[in-house]
Automatic annotation (TrEMBL):
The keyword Transmembrane applies. This is MFS transporter. Keywords: Membrane, Transmembrane, Transmembrane helix. Its main location: membrane.
Length: 402
């Protein structure tokens, strides 16, 4: 990184908005599924909530892409933040009846996430450049890891201390206030220039084109999403079910996030492009191996092995996935001009994978909900990162993601 790299005021403001959004998610998002579980102990219900959320995220990326490219992307970002706050306001309002509104609440949360991130990804591309993008990403990673360490631990301790729903209501209220602060900060970000016309069918065009590298990239992203769709909510839920304590879940997240902070820093410092293909394969295999101890017993100890192992090996797998996708967006002036559509294609591919994994989870648990069934299902779905490597290894070896 060059010593001349620095972040201007706009980059700093966007970084602050990102940090606060991640903080709000770390405070409340970790315990949202636990809150739903305590209202109704049903894995399938959590699965349907995830389905509603993911469908809304993908469709919002696709529909919102037109507004982001052709109109005011800053308003899209603000609406996403406002809807996130509205989601937690509604959760506070309905209280213990939240399980009766799984679908509308899941859709609302998905829309808010989709609007914010489709705008953020494009604004991030515009307020940074080649000289300071690594510096910006470094700060994003640092803030994300720090909030991931402190946020869930603080929430878990507070919820345990206050007992009952009081702790949850306080944490959700704090998140609501943070979203309000984000909206205020967003008005200090400058209005961005409009882009060219939005091509609705560009994702389909890329997938139908025989020479497009996005055909392989999309398959890799679908495979990535299969694991993400289930593990994103299941791990924290299993920790709570095994311990019956929010504080232990907060402790679990603190430990795993602290390790992630170190491993992502090391990977960013030493992970060279020539190591991406073998490194991704090794990471994918190790992410699968750390699930095996759950075959003996689903306890806090075996889940901690899974969590620590995932924190150690995830950078080896996920960094090549991220790099290869975003680097394909900058291979020519044409792809740069279509960056919004390609961001949408990337998210739609992930959505398909997440939905596929979640549907498999729901169908299997409708037949059997034993701990062994869940563990075997995790082993099957947890092998999907290996498929990601199989699909994109040619892109990595061909230097497209350099």
């Amino acid at each position: 990184m060059k010593t001349t790299a620095h972040l201007d005021r706009q980059s700093q403001l966007l970084l602050a908005v990102n940090g606060l959004i991640v903080l709000a998610g770390a405070l409340s998002g970790t315990f949202l599924n636990v809150y739903l579980w305590k209202s109704k102990q049903d894995y399938t219900m959590i699965g349907w909530f995830t389905v509603a959320q993911q469908v809304a995220v993908g469709l919002t990326f696709w529909l919102g892409g037109k507004w982001v490219k052709e109109y005011n992307k800053m308003n899209t970002l603000r609406v996403g933040i406002v809807l996130s706050g509205l989601f937690y306001l509604l959760v506070l309002w309905v209280g213990s009846d939240v399980v009766r509104f799984i679908w509308p609440l899941g859709i609302l949360l998905g829309i808010s996430i989709g609007l914010f991130w489709v705008a953020f990804n494009v604004v991030y591309f515009e307020v940074t450049d080649r000289e300071n993008r690594d510096l910006f990403n470094g700060w994003v990673g640092l803030l994300g890891s720090f909030t991931g360490i402190v946020g869930p631990w603080f929430s878990g301790t507070l919820i345990t201390w206050l007992k009952g729903d009081k702790g949850y209501r306080l944490i959700f209220t704090i998140s609501l206030v943070i979203y309000a602060i984000c909206v205020v900060l967003s008005f200090f970000l400058k209005k961005r220039e409009k882009g060219s016309s939005y091509h609705w069918m560009e994702p389909i065009t890329q997938l139908r084109s025989k020479g497009s590298p996005w055909r392989l990239m999309s398959l890799g992203l679908v495979a990535q999403g299969i694991r993400e769709g289930v593990f994103a909510f299941l791990i924290s839920l299993l920790v709570f079910v095994a311990t019956k304590q929010e504080a232990r879940l907060g402790q679990f997240t603190l430990i795993t996030s602290a390790i992630s902070l170190l491993t992502y820093w090391l990977a960013g410092k030493w992970y060279k492009p020539k190591f991406r293909s073998p490194g991704m394969l090794v990471g994918a295999l190790l992410l699968w191996i750390v699930i095996i101890p759950l075959l003996w017993k689903t306890s806090y100890g075996t889940l901690l092995i899974l969590g620590i192992g995932s924190s150690l090996f995830m950078p080896l797998y996920i960094l090549p996935m991220i790099s290869s996708g975003f680097d394909l967006m900058g291979t020519s002036d044409e792809t740069v001009d279509k960056r919004v559509e390609l961001v949408v294609l990337r998210e739609l591919s992930l959505m398909v994978g997440r939905l596929a994994g979640t549907f498999i989870f729901i169908i299997v648990l409708m037949v059997s909900k034993t701990p062994l069934t869940i563990t075997i299902l995790m082993l099957i779905l947890g092998a999907s990162p290996i498929l990601s490597w199989v699909f994109i290894r040619k892109l990595l070896q061909g230097g497209r993601s350099a």
